Amino acid sequence: MTYSWFSRIILLGYKKPLEREDLFELNESDSSYIVCPIFEKQWRKEVLRNQERQEIKASFHKEARARKPSLLYALWNTFKFVLIQVALFKVFADILSFTSPLIMKQMIIFCEHRQDFGWRGYGYALALFVVVFLQTLILQQYQRFNMLTSAKIKTAVIGLIYKKALLLSNVSRKRFSTGEVINLMSADAQQLMDLTANLNLLWSAPLQILMAVSLLWQELGPAVLAGTAVLVLVIPINALVATRVKKLKKSQTKNKDKQIKLLNEILHGIKILKLYAWEPSYKKKIVEIREQELEVQKSAGYLAVFSMLTLTCIPFLTRISLGRLEDFLNTEELLPQNIETNYIGDHAIGFTNASFSWDKTGIPVLKNLNIKIPEGALVAVIGQVGSGKSSVLSAMLGEMEKLTGVVQRKGSVAYVAQQAWIQNCILQENILFGSTMQKQFYEQVLEACALLPDLEQLPNGDQTEIGERGVNISGGQKHRVSLARAVYSRADIYLLDDPFSAVDVHIGKQLFEKVIGSSGILKNKTRVLVTHNLTLLPQMDLIVVMESGRVAQMGTYQELLSKTRNLTHLLQAFSEQEKAHALKRVSVINSRTILKDQILEQNDRPSLDQGKQFSMKKEKIPIGGVKFSIILKYLQAFGWLWVWLSVASYVGQNLVGIGQNLWLSAWAKEAKHMNEFTEWKQIRSNKLNIYGLLGLMQGFFVCSGAYILTRGSLAASRTLYAQLLDNVLHLPLQFFETSPIGQIINRFTKDMFIIDMRFHYYLRTWVNCTLDVIGTVLVIVGALPLFILGVIPLVFLYFTIQRYYVASSRQIRRLAGASRSPIISHFSETLSGVSTIRAFGHEQRFIQQNKEVVNENLVCFYNNVISNRWLSVRLEFLGNLMVFFAALLAVLAGSSIDSALVGLSISYALNITQSLNFWVRKACEIETNAVSIERVCEYENMGKEAPWIMSRRPPAQWPNKGIVEFINYRARYRDDLGLALQDITFQTHGEEKIGIVGRTGAGKSTLSNCLFRIVERSGGKIIIDGIDISTIGLHDLRGKLNIIPQDPVLFSGTLQMNLDPLDKYSDCQLWEVLELCHLKEFVQSLPKKLLHEISEGGENLRVLVLDSGRITEFGTPQNLICQKGLFFEMLTEAGITQDSVTK
């Protein structure tokens, strides 16, 4: 009960910065591995009970209102016994808190009647000490179990949200964006945790009021009714305030959803923002949402003047979060019965009169499918863009809503998505994907998927960590890793969605021959391949031709070829190159297309170029004390005017409070010596007027303090958030490629929440406690001068305990903060790859991983709670000694002290226990929560990009010729890495098309990155139309260049905003662009047209050949072929002939 067992951690933390391995583990019953399954079981029971209730209601009332399953009821059934235990601790603690005044009353009576002096006075002093000490022990047990239970509830809800996210139907996924789901997991689950932590106040506060009124009735009689009447009048006012706060909270929650959603999109699309110089536009959008949130916060801050606001608002605020969580948990899920997976037949996949849509009530996307795919067959699904090829694979996976018909599938499935999904882990784990290592087969897969050359370039081979979304590997490498993952799974059925789209031609040929084709690893497996490469069709067992969501043709290649007219009609939709491939069956590829594709591919994702070898950074956990400069930074953001006005208001508030108590004490002393009622009545009016004036002054100071604090805290929140956003947007692209998105979002969510809502509260409480302690000591010393002798050693012990505690608590808080980021990162990663996870049937493995990262955070939280209890027991014990010392001095003082001063000094001594405890606790809270300010300000000192705008600006029409010149140019990704480009020197002509080719890692991506100054120079320079690009601002450079990335990135918002975020062009210009891109007809068909909401080769062509960061060849394709060099070798590997280049 005294938490002495935790002293080992406190002492260890004082000697060295604590690490995760130093912390105490949770009891098994408190871990997420036990808590989550128990709660999920109760939730399923509640869902079934609700269904039964609805069926019964429907049988009596045909139009019975649908009722959702109650999350609160499921939580109660899971945690009711521990909640009752916590409530019992609170009852005993409250009873003991009212025992202390009864003992103090006896002491006052004893001091007034000293003729019966004996050992009774010492007995009262000892009894007072025992009672307050017991109250301390019971109250700390209450706090421990209360906080742990609230954390378990949050853990259980997060687990349920995660599991639900894995089961969401497509309609539900459109309804809840990634940002909204993350907000449910963080903000709304936190709200439920806060409810549990404060739940007992809902009945404890009224109980304490009744007990207080009862005791006061015994002392004051009917006079107590006046105070009770005021209290009764205040309650409905607070109820009205709570209703207003509920509306504000709803508005704030929506703003938070928008903010996190947009932040998530910005961070995932940061490369596009930087390449197009769109940062200011999106920064403005974020700031607008943030200002709306601060307006709500300001209104809530002004309402906080009412003393009972927090208590009254708890159920209202939690009701909002409960409603949001229940809406999410009751949304549509994918129906497993859409696909029959337990049938026994002669085909691997079968569709019978099957129609599908993405929405149960939507228009069918696939219509009347009748397909039978034999086991072990190689099937191609082809068709024009938008014909439904990828949708067929989604239907096979069960990702679409089946409207009619029958779907059958036999055996396990492996899936390669069109957009490769890569996990933030080492490359080997990406391939194994939860399977056990079989070395021989693993190496066979690596060789077949053409990954062995890539492993030689990786710094740690297959142990190299791959960043979030595969940022440190190229698009082709991502697809090959994704393919290797599927092959290694040894599934029965392989669904491959255009896996060759991002790989070089010769690599694609190798992948088909060694993996997918008739002699590949998967030769005996069922393979369904969506492809645009028509040269592969002769090798297919079955070809399915899709058109407008229907099967237009189906059969072998020879069968389709015999129907010349139909096949020709199909091929007309493809490029002339592909038509030639299909009709002539000649493996010839037009060199212009190849070179064009290289240009488009070059900015997909950085290849593992020589010199660009990095891994994801683990979150840095600071050590040592929080610098005072961090607190100073907050105070500067707060505004020094508001700081001093706040201090003045709280000093005035405390001085007036002390004055009120001293005035009452003096009044009571005078009244005691008055024999005549008329004499007392004469001074009553004067005394009451002054007391009333002091009350009004205190009310003024309280209201002023609340107003000043709200203004200052809003200024601090606005300033620090703007600085954080500005710092993040100015960070170089390499930072985002090596830092998990969860780390960054964590600063915008949890850390900013502490700055917005908590830090100013801790500062205010600490100032109040400091003034309370000073005032209390002065009052007691004034009445009992010898009290100072006991205070000095006790204060020394206070500071000693605080010093030991802060060192450990601060580091535990840092560990807890760092452990939150993996939760968000894993959650975000899962949502982006949910189709792949479901296809492989690995939902349970990812649920287990979620439990692991949540459990790590729970361990840190638990240790933080215990450290607080360790501190509280010791501080309150010292405070109890102060109470005992004051009571003992009062007994020893005998008749030399008035009983009124005895009551005042002991009541202050009882308060000092809480005040001193709060003073030390809040001082520690300030330091530990200042970690959030430290984390928010961390990016300020990181290396930034060059300025967006510089004093030298290019002419408005620059560049007007397009002459690009590299002069002895060198570049490296980091100072500690080798050169990625070495002595590059070449010059282009105006309006010339340049093809950049080279093997993986040659430096193609690096070259384009240097043009945009994504990678800065290590030597030499780049001149575009006479201007050295290093002498102008990044936005002046990037705003004048353009690039077409391979992976399209769309942001939520209107189509017009996605086309022109800077609002530079007219509608006519936008329509012209859409027409050029063959999108005008499509956009005109949309109801809102441009305002449609988005849900989440030339004649003078020359070639630049790179190898190991150096230019090896530069010239026309014909000249390079004649040289028989590296370019000729690459063409030969790709099967490109000289004739095709000439054409």
Automatic annotation (TrEMBL):
<feature type="transmembrane region" description="Helical">
    <location>
        <begin position="773"/>
        <end position="801"/>
    </location>
</feature>
<feature type="transmembrane region" description="Helical">
    <location>
        <begin position="299"/>
        <end position="318"/>
    </location>
</feature>
<dbReference type="GO" id="GO:0140359">
    <property type="term" value="F:ABC-type transporter activity"/>
</dbReference>
<dbReference type="GO" id="GO:0016887">
    <property type="term" value="F:ATP hydrolysis activity"/>
</dbReference>
<feature type="domain" description="ABC transmembrane type-1">
    <location>
        <begin position="644"/>
        <end position="918"/>
    </location>
</feature>
<feature type="domain" description="ABC transporter">
    <location>
        <begin position="349"/>
        <end position="573"/>
    </location>
</feature>
<dbReference type="InterPro" id="IPR011527">
    <property type="entry name" value="ABC1_TM_dom"/>
</dbReference>
<feature type="transmembrane region" description="Helical">
    <location>
        <begin position="122"/>
        <end position="139"/>
    </location>
</feature>
<dbReference type="InterPro" id="IPR003593">
    <property type="entry name" value="AAA+_ATPase"/>
</dbReference>
<feature type="domain" description="ABC transmembrane type-1">
    <location>
        <begin position="84"/>
        <end position="318"/>
    </location>
</feature>
<dbReference type="Pfam" id="PF00005">
    <property type="entry name" value="ABC_tran"/>
</dbReference>
<feature type="transmembrane region" description="Helical">
    <location>
        <begin position="877"/>
        <end position="897"/>
    </location>
</feature>
<dbReference type="GO" id="GO:0005524">
    <property type="term" value="F:ATP binding"/>
</dbReference>
<dbReference type="GO" id="GO:0005774">
    <property type="term" value="C:vacuolar membrane"/>
</dbReference>
<dbReference type="InterPro" id="IPR050173">
    <property type="entry name" value="ABC_transporter_C-like"/>
</dbReference>
<keyword id="KW-0926">Vacuole</keyword>
<keyword id="KW-0813">Transport</keyword>
<keyword id="KW-0812">Transmembrane</keyword>
<keyword id="KW-1133">Transmembrane helix</keyword>
<keyword id="KW-0067">ATP-binding</keyword>
<dbReference type="InterPro" id="IPR036640">
    <property type="entry name" value="ABC1_TM_sf"/>
</dbReference>
<keyword id="KW-0472">Membrane</keyword>
<protein>
    <submittedName>
        <fullName>Multidrug resistance-associated</fullName>
    </submittedName>
</protein>
<dbReference type="InterPro" id="IPR003439">
    <property type="entry name" value="ABC_transporter-like_ATP-bd"/>
</dbReference>
<feature type="transmembrane region" description="Helical">
    <location>
        <begin position="688"/>
        <end position="709"/>
    </location>
</feature>
<feature type="transmembrane region" description="Helical">
    <location>
        <begin position="223"/>
        <end position="241"/>
    </location>
</feature>
<dbReference type="InterPro" id="IPR027417">
    <property type="entry name" value="P-loop_NTPase"/>
</dbReference>
<dbReference type="GO" id="GO:0000323">
    <property type="term" value="C:lytic vacuole"/>
</dbReference>
<dbReference type="Pfam" id="PF00664">
    <property type="entry name" value="ABC_membrane"/>
</dbReference>
<keyword id="KW-0547">Nucleotide-binding</keyword>
